Amino acid sequence: MTQPRITKVIHPLYHNLEQELTNLIENYSTQSTYLFKGSRNTIKLATLSTGQRVAIKSFKIPNAINKRVYKWLRKPKGQRSFEHAEKLKELGVASPQAVAYFEYSTATTIQNTYYISEFVEAEITYRDLITQKNYPNRALILEEFVLFSYGLHEKGIKFLDHSPGNTLIQKQKEGTFVFYLVDINRMKFNQTMSFSERMKNLAHLTTNIQDIEKMAEHYARLIGKNSKEVFIRLWLETIKFQFRFYKKKDIKFKMKRFLLSGE
Within 10 Å of residue 219's Cβ, how many Cβ atoms? Predict the structure, then answer.
């Protein structure tokens, strides 16, 4: 059997740990500390010899078509994550420090891809803020999160996975909050985002109408629009997003049921 080609890029901060990082990837299957275990991707936690904890994300092996797409037409997810983390840092947006990415490939296809970043200890994610209505300083965090999102839009960053679980919220000693973006392989830079595009981007976050009203109020002040106008557009975009999301899930469920039935 042909041995896969291994491509690896180690961040300059971690060049002296290249062999240690390589060993982590080669022995990924034996590591048992999961941060996340999904049907597509998994994330495991490891501690380096320096004491630094790192998150290792293993992306699902692409299907037959995408194996070739990622080889020839589009950068693999691990590479995009690494490059996006560096770009975000340049733009002054927090994201866990990139450590390395690895990819295994053949002459014609991409197989396994991995992305390693520093592990960020955060109190909550935006999803926790949605579910915990009595969380301390909730109103302040929500307002600062809207300011953070506005900052992304102003910097021309379109975060395509701007969903509840992809922003880590870390409280600082002085009482302020830092927002870290994770799951960053799908984003676009240098975008001139219209009002409509900004609302579509925010529409992935919550269906709670009270929170949407508050978000609209905060965003309206920042963008110089009437809060009612912002709320109506954000609420409509939220409804449309939810409709598309559940329609897609329903189609996938029906297709899976059809294939399993053997009809």
Answer: 23
Q: Which domain holds residue 14?
A: 5-118
The span from the CA of 14 to the CA of 98, in Å, is: 9
**Backbone torsions φ then ψ of 59, nearest 5 degrees:** -85, 145
Task: List all residues 6 or more positions away from 103 whose beta carbon is below 8 Å from its beta carbon.
Answer: 6, 7, 8, 76, 78, 79, 110, 111, 112, 113, 114
Residues 26-75 have pLDDT tens digits of 999 998 899 999 878 999 999 999 999 999 999 987 777 777 777 777 89
Nearest to 6 by CA among 91, 110, 96: 110
Compute the distance between CA of residue 215 and CA of residue 231 in angstroms, rounded to an integer: 8
Instruction: Enter the DSSP assignment of 61.
Output: P
State phi, psi for 223 to the nearest 5 degrees.
Answer: -95, -10
Element (H, E) at 55: strand 53-59
Q: Are residues 132 and 156 in the same domain?
A: yes
- Integer Cα distance of 224 and 183 in angstroms: 31
Give CA separation, 3 vs 25, 35, 49, 60, 109, in Å: 16, 30, 29, 19, 13
CATH number at residue 176: 1.10.510
pTM metric for this prediction: 0.88
